[in-house]
Design a protein that fits this description.
Blueprint: H1 24-41, E1 50-53, H2 55-66, E2 74-77, H3 92-100, H4 104-112, E3 116-118, H5 120-128, H6 131-144, H7 146-161, E4 165-167, H8 168-180, H9 183-186
Parallel strand pairs: 1-2
Antiparallel strand pairs: 3-4
């Protein structure tokens, strides 16, 4: 919408293949430099609205924490920020890591991938949090509303089925600091 209305719009995206040794903190630092350049190019404009989707939402939140003077409003889509939130005994993210044995499964997958972690495993992890929806409900909804749900369903499946590779260091940081450490909400 902003682009159609003639506002300057910039995009920062993750590439499919990881940069050796890169972590999400490196991405956040690069985004801070990028936003400084945007601010310099538009000195009379208000602070930019920053939109982060999924892992980009995590990077956006860290960016806002590290450089609050460079960002305006934040829009975070599909970027859970509190993995331990919810009621004790009811939120599956609280217990999934413990049941799986902590961070070692992600690191094992990275080792089996010759130092690269397949992001499809993160999607699979999210899907396992609601097996009823994953295996039954989302398909039933499509069939019940076949005239209106097909396009939305296919768009989401294409998006969630797209994957990115992460290097071992990056997935170790993500799992340890975010999923297990819950650092966004715990400080």
């Amino acid at each position: 919408m902003a682009l159609r209305r003639g506002h300057p719009v910039y995009f920062v995206v993750f590439s499919r293949d990881p940069v050796a040794g890169q972590t999400i903190l490196d991405v956040t630092a690069a985004e801070a430099v990028f936003l400084q350049t945007v601010l310099e190019r538009h000195p009379r404009a208000p602070k930019p609205v920053v939109i982060g989707n999924c892992q980009g939402g995590w990077a956006t939140m860290m960016l806002a924490s590290a450089a609050p003077d460079r960002v305006g409003a934040l829009v975070l889509n599909g970027a859970p920020l509190s993995y331990w939130a919810g009621e004790r005994g009811k939120n599956p993210m609280r217990y999934l890591g413990g049941l799986a044995g902590g961070s070692w499964p992600a690191l094992l997958l990275a080792d089996l991938g010759n130092g690269k972690f397949d992001g499809a495993n993160l999607v699979m992890n999210s899907e396992s949090l609601s097996p009823g929806n994953t295996w039954f409900r989302k398909y039933a909804d499509v069939y019940l509303e076949a005239d209106t749900e097909a396009e939305r369903f296919l768009e989401f499946e294409r998006w969630s089925g797209g994957f990115f590779l992460r290097n071992r260091e990056e997935i170790r940081w993500i799992v340890g600091k975010l999923f297990i450490g819950n650092r966004f909400s715990a400080g």
